[in-house]
Amino acid sequence: MVFPVVFLKLADWVLYQLLANSCYRAARKVRNYGFFLRNQTPRSSSQQQAASLFPSASHCDVGNNIRSSQTLVCDIHGVLLRAETFFPYFMLVAFEAGGILRAFLLLLSYSFLWVLDYELKLRVMIFISFCGLRKKDIESVGRAVLPKFYLENLNLQAYEVWSKTSSRVVFTSIPRVMVEGFLKEYMAVDDVAGTELHTVGNRFTGLLSSSGLLVKHKALKAYFGDKKPDVGLGSSSLHDHHFISLCKEAYVVHKEDGRNNQSCLTPRDKYPKPLIFHDGRLAFLPTPFATLCMFLWLPFGIVLAIFRILVGICLPYRLAIFWGSLSGVQLTFQGCFPSSNSEQKKGVLYVCTHRTLLDPVFLSTALCKPLTAVTYSLSKMSEIIAPIKTVRLTRDRKQDGETMQKLLSEGDLVVCPEGTTCREPYLLRFSSLFAELADEIVPVAMNAHVSMFYGTTASGLKWLDPIFFLMNPRPSYHVQILGKVPPEFTCAGGRSSFEVANYIQRKLADALGFECTTFTRRDKYLMLAGNEGIVRENKRN
C-alpha cells in the first residue's frame, strides 16, 4: 500500500505545479493585462523611466568609453543575440540530437508555454529537449550546429562593445552546455556561468542540478566578490537592470533596436571568426511558425523526394530536366560543352567543387551524357539510387591513381578534389592527385541552395543526404563549366601537380565568389564529428 500512496502524492504535486500554478499565473497575466489597459500611460512612463536609468548600447562611443583592458559581463539571451525567445535553439537541440518525434513534442508544448512564467517555461523546454539524451550528442550540437544560428542572430551593437574589451564573462540562465562551445570558440569568452543540468551516467535527465536555475546578479556577486566588473551589458528588463547595476558602467540593448532592424545584424565579414564548417539538417531558424510549416510540409516533401529520385533514375536526360523543373528543382547551366580531343585516347576529367553528393548527377544531367564519378565515401543506398556509375576510392594514392587512370581510359570522369562537402562560400584544399592523371582538365563551378533541409551531414546518416536535399520545396543547382585548363597550366606544360591544383582552386573560387582555404576533409570531421571522416567497410555509414 505504500507505493500507491506515494504515487498519488507525487501525482497530486505534479498536477498542482503544472495546472494550479499555471492557471494562477495565467489569471495574473490576464489581470495585469487588464490593469495595463486601464493604466496604460502611467505604466509606460514608468517603464521608460526604468529604461532611462542606463544609456543605450547604440549610443555608446565605443572608441572613447570602452577600453581594451576592461572586463565586460553580459547575457547571451536578449543581449548578444537578437532573438526574443530561446525556443528556436531548444528546437534545434530537440531535432538534431533527439529526433523528429522529440521536436514535434516540443512544438506541441508551445501551445501552453505562453501561460507559464519564464522559469517554468525554461524548465519545460529543458526537460523536453534534454531528457534521456547523451552528453556527447548535446555537446556535438552545441559545437557543430548552434554556432551558425547564433552568428546569424548576433547583435552588431552589442558585439561592437564586446569586441573592444579584453576580458569577458557571460552569465545566463540558459543551459551552459548550449552556449559554452560557441562562446569559447567564436566569441573568445573567458568564462561562462550558466544553468547546470542533472545527469545520470552519460545522459541528461532533463532536470536542473541542485543549484537550480542560475540567477544572474547572485552569480555575478559570487564570481567577482567585492570587485565590480568594468562594463555590464543587459536587456531592457528589470531583472537585467539589477544585474548590470553591479557594474561600474552599464549599457542597455533595447528590443526596439534589434527587432526587425537589419542594421543590427552582424554581416558575415564582421563575424568574430569565419563560419566555414557547420552540421545539422535544418537550414532555417526553427521558430514556432517555421517549425509548424516544416511538419506540415514533411509528408509532401517525402513523396516529392521519391518522385524526383524516380525521375532521375528512370527518365532520359531531357525528360528528367523537364519533370524535375515541374516538381520545383531548379537547374541553371552556364558555359559551353567541352569538345574531346580525338587524338587523345583518354576521356575528359571534370574537376568540380563539392556541395552535395549529387554534384556528379547534376553535372551529368546538365551535359546530357553519362559520366563516372569517384568518391571517398559512399553509402550502399546512395550507390543503388545513383543514376550514374560510381566508384569508391581507397585513400591509397597509388591504388586510387591506377583506378582513375583506368576509368579515364573508358570515358569521361568526375572528381571532387576537396574530398568532402562544404556548405559555406569557401573551397577546401584541393588534392593534387587528379592533376597527375590527365591533360584535358575541365573545371566545373557548382553551387547548391536549399531553404529547409541540408543535403549533407558529418555525423548523421549519409544515405539520407540525397533524400533530404530533394525534400526541399525548391532546391536549386548552379552548374558553370569554365572551359579546359590551358596546356601551359597542366603537368604536361611543366607545372607541378600542386601548382595545377591551386590554380584550378583559385579559378573556381573566383567564378563562384568564394574564398580559398587550406582546410581539409580531416579538419572538417575533427571539428564537427570528432573523427577523421573515414568510413569503414564493415560499419554502417
Explained architecture:
- The strands form four sheets. The chain has a seven-stranded mixed sheet, with helices on both faces. Strands 3-2-1-6-7 form a five-stranded parallel sheet, sandwiched between helices. A two-stranded antiparallel ribbon has the order 4-5.
- The model is unreliable at 1-11, 29-50 and 537-541 (pLDDT under 50).
- It is elongated.
- Helix 5 (87-98) runs antiparallel to helix 6, helix 5 (87-98) packs parallel to helix 7 and helix 8 (135-144) crosses helix 11 (176-185).
- The longest helix is centred in the first third of the chain and has 37 residues, at 2-38.
- It contains 22 helices and 16 strands.
- With 541 residues, the chain is of the alpha/beta class.
- One of its GO terms (molecular function) is phosphatase activity.
Question: Which secondary structure elements does this structure contain, and how are they paired or packed?
Answer:
Elements: H1 2-38, H2 40-51, H3 62-65, E1 71-74, H4 76-80, H5 87-98, H6 100-113, H7 118-130, H8 135-144, H9 146-152, H10 156-163, E2 167-175, H11 176-185, E3 191-195, E4 197-200, E5 203-208, H12 216-224, E6 231-235, H13 238-244, E7 249-253, H14 255-258, H15 288-314, H16 317-326, E8 330-334, E9 349-352, H17 359-367, E10 372-375, H18 380-385, E11 389-392, H19 397-410, E12 413-415, E13 426-427, E14 441-449, H20 465-470, E15 476-481, H21 497-512, E16 515-516, H22 521-528
Parallel strand pairs: 1-2, 1-6, 2-3, 6-7, 8-15, 9-12, 9-14, 10-11, 10-12, 13-16
Antiparallel strand pairs: 4-5, 14-15
Helix pairs in contact: 5-6, 5-7, 5-8, 6-7, 8-11, 12-13, 15-16
